[in-house]
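Example record

The entry below shows one chain as it appears in the dataset: sequence first, then structure tokens.
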Amino acid sequence: MFQKIVLSIVLFFAFSIVAFFLLIKVIDFNEYKPRIQKAIKESTGYEVMIRGDITLSLSPAGVSIFDVEITNPSYHAEVPFAKLGSFDVALDLSALLKKEIKVRHIAIDSLSLLVEKTKEGTFNYELPPVPKITDKKAKEGDIILEQEDGFPLVNVKKIKFSNANIVYVDQKSNTQIDFDKIDLDINHIQYDTSKHHLQALFFTADTHIDKIQYGRYALKDLSMSFEIKDAIAVSENLHYTLFETPIQGSGKFDLSGKQPKISIKSKIVDLKLAMLSRELLNQELLEGNVNGDLRLSFFVGDSHAFKSTLNGFVQLYGTDVTLKGYDVDKIAFMLDPNQRSKGFSLGNLISGATGVLKGGNTLLKEINTKIDIGYSEIHLSDVALSTATNRVAMKGAVNIIDEKFIDLKTALLDARGCATFEQKMSGSFAKPSLKVDDASITALSNVILSFSTKPKTAPITPKKNDENCTVFYEGVIKHPVVTTTPLGE
């Protein structure tokens, strides 16, 4: 008898719940769309247009809204800055029976978000400031005081974004960044009421982004798992593809300040130089692979903010790399005052005439690039290459904000690391100025004199070894060991 009573009670509640939801299912909530849109406008200030249907579900208990557009009435009200393919909210049924609202999860599909920064420095999603009234005896019709700082996701435990696309446009710098096909799962959401804004949030997340495009530069297949606490997200398994090369490392994303700060550390293995030169230099210049490390940090913002805050280093090293279009050994031969070479002149060297410097390829036995980046300047700490017979090095710095060369020098080296030929570069990227020192001019003059048909031309005098020369380069690239075979062997 007792079992029948319990079973009857259970069946009664079960049928009551089913009947309740069946009743809700027959209600057409689309009739309430104007009221919902008006309520959102009054509470947030944004215009929301629900173009699709509003439907209810039983398992899980929740509501789905389709085809939603959001506009800012104070900025191009005719153009939505956000579109949602669907917005789903699943509720905790047991909490509903206790007259409580707890959200099991929120799912947003096919979000399209356009973020524009105007020439005046404002954003397209910003609303005009709402005047505040501090007098508690505000009259009827006066603007109501804003509520105390809170966070609407207190009872949300999980949020999922699928197939989201974000476009950031800076009208002042005329730059654009595209984030394509973002999938983001946010879990274990907790909120500390003693803190404010993002500092109050804790959650874990997994994300994947198909591509981040900035101009002609692209970062692909970015994925990571991270934990955010006190507005700082940390990931120890950051993966991405750069220049068609898979790279892994770690990252830190600091959202606690006025501008987000990103710090990344990565190990580079078999970086494809062909793709690097194609995307970074916009030409077919290098072929081969290199290994290395990078550690960079910067603040997120416009191009000026990125360049002025970029800090860290990049180091790449490789062997048997092909330099296309230039014969380094031939150029070195031309610069040797003890040799003769037809068709060469100092003017051709400085102007970089194609007939003299271009043509042929060079197999670089070793190549090393170590640059240190410090807030607007890139310093060439250890940049050099070697062929089978020659070694070339560069040093100096580049200002990436002013786009100027700072005492940039390229030198052909002897076995001691001293410069047998040195060329300086100054000026701007658009109008570089090339200078050659007196010793190099003397060496080049000897070569030019050797081309003269005048009988009174002075013979070439071999350059004497300077025992007290100033060493130009002392890095990791060693001078090639040139072996000669005696004649007749």
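Notes for this example: The first strand starts at residue 47 and ends at 50. The longest helix spans residues 2-25.
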